[in-house]
Structure formats: C-alpha cells, structure tokens
Amino acid sequence: MPYCCGRLDLNVGVVGEINLKKIFAMALCLIATTATASDIDERQVLPVTEMQRNHILTEMRALLAGTQNILSALARDDMAAVARHAHPLGTGMAHKGEDHMQAVLPKEFMQLGMSVHKDFDQIAADAESLQDSRYTLKQLSESMNKCVACHAAYQIRITDQPTKLHAQPMRHKH
C-alpha cells in the first residue's frame, strides 16, 4: 500500500510520487474552487443600461491600451511617445462625454475617474519637461493603483430600467 496511516512507502517510486502529486493538485483545486464559489462579491453595484456599460468599458479599454502604449514607450525610453500616448487619456478624454454619466454614477466613482485623467495630463506634461522615465513609471504606477482601487470597489450590472442618461443624446466617442 503506497500511503497508509500517514506513512509513505519509500519503495513506491516515481509512479507513487505522480499519484500523490495528482491527489495534492486535485485537493488544491477543490479547495480553491470551494473558496471562490462561496465568496460573495461585495463591491458596490453600479446599475447601468447596456449602452452606459459599453460607454464605460470603451473608455476603460482606451485607458488600458494607452497605458500599454506608454509602457512600451518607456521601455524604449521614448519620452516624446510617452507624452503623445498620455495626452489623449487626460482630462480632454473625460470631457468628451462624462457630463451625462454624472447623473448615473456615484460621485466617488466619477472623482476617481477624473483623478486618473488628471494623472495622464500630468504624465504627459512631465514626460515632455522632465524626460525622466523612472519618474514617469512611478507616476503611472500610482495612477494604476487608482484603477485597482476602483475595480475593487465597484462592479457594473446591466439594468433594463432607463436612467437619466436616455434623456440626453450619446455623443461620447474614443
């Protein structure tokens, strides 16, 4: 018997090791699945229409893609490209359509989002003036902490109920 009463038969060899590894891996998966399945998402729900959800996610994707472009430029130490990629993510991006979302989203959510846009304005300005990639990387890291905090605090749920957003035309495009 390869494993009995807490003792391991050392004559089992490689086959026994593999079986024990499989059992251990399955046990870990079961524990992880059980823990995950029992976790309740306690983040604040942001009830939005599908169109509002698409607006929010389109902006988040633009921020993510822009951040990746900035990181790529930083890896090449191309500060002009950093500024070029950061500038469109700044407050100009936010002012293209966030006014109509203020009636739908919590003030704290909007403030956090606006602070990220202001961060990108500052990143663009500092990339041009300071030309310091390490400083820019630190700024980007601090801004990304806001993204992590926001995603930890909020979840988006689609509702069928119209919100104040439908009273105003959608003009936001990235």
Topology record:
Blueprint: E1 3-4, E2 7-8, H1 14-38, E3 44-48, H2 50-75, H3 79-86, H4 91-94, H5 107-130, H6 133-153, E4 154-158
Parallel strand pairs: 3-4
Antiparallel strand pairs: 1-2
Helix pairs in contact: 2-3, 3-5, 5-6
Can you give a write-up of this model?
With 174 residues, the protein is mainly alpha-helical. The chain has two domains: 3-38, no CATH class; 44-167, Four Helix Bundle (Hemerythrin (Met), subunit A), CATH 1.20.120. The chain contains six helices and four strands, in the order ββαβαααααβ. The chain has helices spanning 14-38, 50-75, 79-86, 91-94, 107-130, 133-153; strands spanning 3-4, 7-8, 44-48, 154-158. It has a two-stranded antiparallel ribbon with strand order 1-2. The chain has a two-stranded parallel ribbon with strand order 3-4. Strand 1 and strand 2 (7-8) form a beta hairpin. The N and C termini lie far apart (65 Å).
How would you summarize what this structure contains?
This protein is mainly α. The protein has helices spanning 14-38, 50-75, 79-86, 91-94, 107-130, 133-153; strands spanning 3-4, 7-8, 44-48, 154-158. The strands form 2 sheets. The chain has a two-stranded antiparallel ribbon with strand order 1-2. It has a two-stranded parallel sheet with strand order 3-4.
